[in-house]
Structures are given as C-alpha cells and as structure tokens.
Write a structure and sequence with these properties.
It is a single chain. With about 350 residues, this protein is α+β, with helices and mostly antiparallel strands. It has a 6-stranded mixed beta sheet. Strands 3-6-4-5 form a 4-stranded mixed beta sheet. Helix 4 crosses helix 6. The structure holds magnesium ion. The site of magnesium ion (MG) has 4 residues, from helix 2.
C-alpha cells in the first residue's frame, strides 16, 4: 500500500542530513525555528531541477539527490559562506519508494559531508521537480560578491573546466554525433559513452563537487567571486559587468583534464570556455594576495589556475593562442554578454 505524505516524511526526510544544535525546531511543526549565531549574516539561495529541462527522464535518482544540493552549495561557496540549513520542495508524479530511497541516499551523503540539516519543505504530486532552498552564514561584510573586481586584479578558476559539458554530451547524447548521420552518430555515441577513460567526465556532470571550503578560505583575499554554472565566458562576463570592469582570458592557460583533452581534442578549450555546469569558482584578487591565495588552495588540496586579468573599460577578450584554427571559434553563450 502506498505510504501517506506524513509516512514518507517520517521514513525518508526527518532523519536526513547533519544534526545541528542551532536547529531548535526542524521538520514537523508549521515552520522551522533556527538560531542564527550573533554577528552573522544569513546567505540564502534557491535552485530548481526540472525533469525535461535540467535532466532527462530516467536520470539516476541518487545523482539527482546529490546534484540538487550541489548546485545550491556552489552558490553558497561563491558567496564565501558556510552552509547550514536547507528546505526541500519535491514534486513527484508518484510515491515511488525505490526512487525516493536512492534520491535520499544521494542528498543525505552530501548534506552530512557539508554539515547541512534538512529543516523543512514540501511534498506534492505533479511533474518531477526538485527545488532546494539553502541557507548559510557569513561574518558581516565578509561575503564574496560579484561587484568587487578592480582593474589590475588577477582572474583565477578552481578545478578543471569543460568536463561537465563533455559529460553532458556523453550522458545525453549531444555533440559529436550530431555532426554525422543519425545512425552513425548514435552508434558512436553509445560506444563513446561507455569508454572508461571518459568516466571522469560523466562523473563531473552527474556529481558536481562544490568548492565550499575554498569559497570560505577566499574571504578577505578575493575581490569578487562567482560560481560557474553557465560557462566560463558567460559567468566571467557577468562578474566583470557587475564590477564595472573589462577583462582578458588567456585560453591557453585554461585548466583542462586529461579526460577532456582525450575526448574533446581541438574542441577542448571551447568546451572549457563555453560549456556550463562546472560548478567551479571564478574569482578575482589583487596581485598582492596571490601567494596567500595559492597557499590557501594548496592547504585545502584544491587546484586553482590563473587564467586572466581584470582591466579598465568593458568587455571580455579571449586570447586563443597561436593556433590559427582556434581564432574563429566563438564560445557558446557569447551572445549573452552585455545583457
Ligand atoms: Mg551562481
């Protein structure tokens, strides 16, 4: 027999996530009651995953549980904040316990790892969608914003770029295959999607790893920060626009994984510059902080790479290297700039 809403909540959601002393009342009352530490600012963000828009029917429930929280954690990381509490609004076509069990495993593992408690939410019936609202804390005035970059600052990114875009192509069957006949494309796609050397690309798409500790370590060091959800070019343009500056990215410096180089070949820099969903941090910093930033990243075991500079004026230029074949390439999302 199908479980009622309250039975589903008791079984799957009440025990979910980290136990936190600052949760006075969590799931089960009309609203949650939370103790905000004196002298903190609250940081709040929300993000939805909708079937057919953000993921395809049949996507792994466990991966969706992870991803729904990860994309929100990435926004909190980009603010330099510490995540604390989340609300979950889940719309399900049916109360499928097999699906729910896997979803909760993915969500709970990341929530516990990052110290996030589930304090409330909503379950309803309808087309599958997952919306998480995440709250975090930051010392007053210490949050990283998009509008603090200054001419002369250096631009950095964390991790490697373009892996998730390649992973999306592999998982959802886009990219290479479209350039060929339908059947040939399909066969090549299936063969590619199964290749073990591309597993890290699929992993980066399905299970993004938000840079929460790095974001907090950048407080007082970075002048501006944004997380990369829509692609390096578009998100860098957003940061520079918010800061009233221009900038330059050196495409020869982009951090590319070996898996991406193998998969993308000559397209790899384009995937890194134009592909989205990396959930890495892009940040600017005065050159005087370069050593402290590199030490902080090393201490956390995080890779960071200098990829460009902030300048006077407006607009974002890309230096595509000496490779003449790349000069004509315009990254996806180019048209978004300036909107
Ligand atoms: Mg963001």
């Amino acid at each position: 027999m199908a479980l009622s809403e309250s039975e589903l909540i008791e079984r799957y959601f009440r025990p979910l996530g980290a136990a936190r002393a600052d949760v006075v009342l969590g799931i089960g009352d009309d609203a949650a009651l939370l103790t905000v530490p004196p002298g903190s600012q609250l940081v709040v963000t929300t993000d939805a995953l909708v079937e057919g828009v953000h993921f395809l029917p049949g996507a792994s429930a466990r991966a969706l549980g992870h991803r729904a929280l990860a994309v929100n954690l990435s926004d909190i990381a980009a603010m330099g904040a510490a995540p604390a509490w989340m609300l979950l609004s889940l719309i399900l076509p049916e109360a499928n316990e097999g699906w729910l069990g896997q979803f909760v495993i993915g969500l709970a593992a990341l929530a516990r790892r990052e110290g996030v408690a589930l304090v409330g939410g909503n379950l309803s019936r309808g087309p599958l969608s997952i919306t998480i609202t995440l709250l975090g804390q930051v010392p007053p005035g210490a949050a990283l914003r998009r509008d603090g970059a200054r001419p002369g600052d250096l631009l950095y990114v964390s991790g490697t770029l373009g892996d998730a875009a390649a992973g999306r192509e592999l998982v959802q069957g886009q990219g290479h295959g479209q350039e060929q006949g339908q059947e040939q494309g399909q066969e090549r796609r299936q063969e590619q999607a199964a290749r073990p050397e591309y597993a890290p690309l699929r992993e980066r798409f399905e299970s993004p790893q938000p840079r929460v500790a790095l974001g907090q370590a950048l407080r007082g060091l970075a002048s501006a920060c944004i997380d990369l959800s829509d692609g390096l070019y578009v998100d860098a343009a957003r940061l520079l626009h918010s800061s009233g500056c221009g900038g330059q990215i050196d495409a020869t410096c982009l951090p590319l994984s070996n898996a991406l180089r193998a998969y993308g070949g000559a397209r790899a820099p384009q995937l890194a510059l134009g592909g989205g969903e990396d959930y890495e941090l892009l940040f600017s910093a005065a050159a005087a902080h370069a050593t402290a930033i590199e030490q902080a990243a090393t201490g956390l075991g995080e890779r960071i790479t200098r990829i460009g500079t902030v300048s006077e004026g407006t607009g974002l230029g890309v230096n595509w290297s000496n490779d003449a074949t790349m000069t004509a390439a315009i990254p996806a999302g180019f048209d978004h700039f300036g909107r």
